Amino acid sequence: MSIVNHKDKRTGVTYVYESESYWDKEKKQPRSKRILIGKIDEATGEVIPTGKSGRKKASAGAPASDKEPGSPITDQVRLLSEKDKEIRILKAENRSLLREKKEILKALETLFQKLKD
Questions:
Q1: pLDDT tens digits, 44-103
Q2: How many domains does the chain have?
Q3: Residue 9 lies in a domain
Q4: What pLDDT sits at residue 98?
Q5: What's the rounded Cα separation, in Å, for the pair 83 and 62?
């Protein structure tokens, strides 16, 4: 099993699925079955459960701190979400550094041309 993120291009919402691969004996091909877990909140990066299984609420009298720890799947999704956020940050930093590198090279070339003349 694996966790799959799929972004809907029309709405911009990223959905999280649990994907399980299996062998289809009739077609003699691998197939996969996906089960919707929820969608990712863009602001926090957390998974918001959707569908029937996601609509279960904690008992009204239970405070938030007394909730049970998340399921392994939810923990994996949260971890993957955090990793994706970190990757986006690192990619942005990389783009910034590449831009800075280009500017420095351009300045060095200009300086070299002035010294050469």
A1: 888 888 866 544 555 444 444 444 555 667 777 888 888 888 888 999 999 999 999 999
A2: 1
A3: yes
A4: 94
A5: 31
Contact 74, 82 (CB under 8 A): no
CB-based contacts of 51, cutoff 8 Å, min separation 6:
36, 38
Residue 47: its pLDDT value, please?
Answer: 86
Residue 63 lies in a domain: no
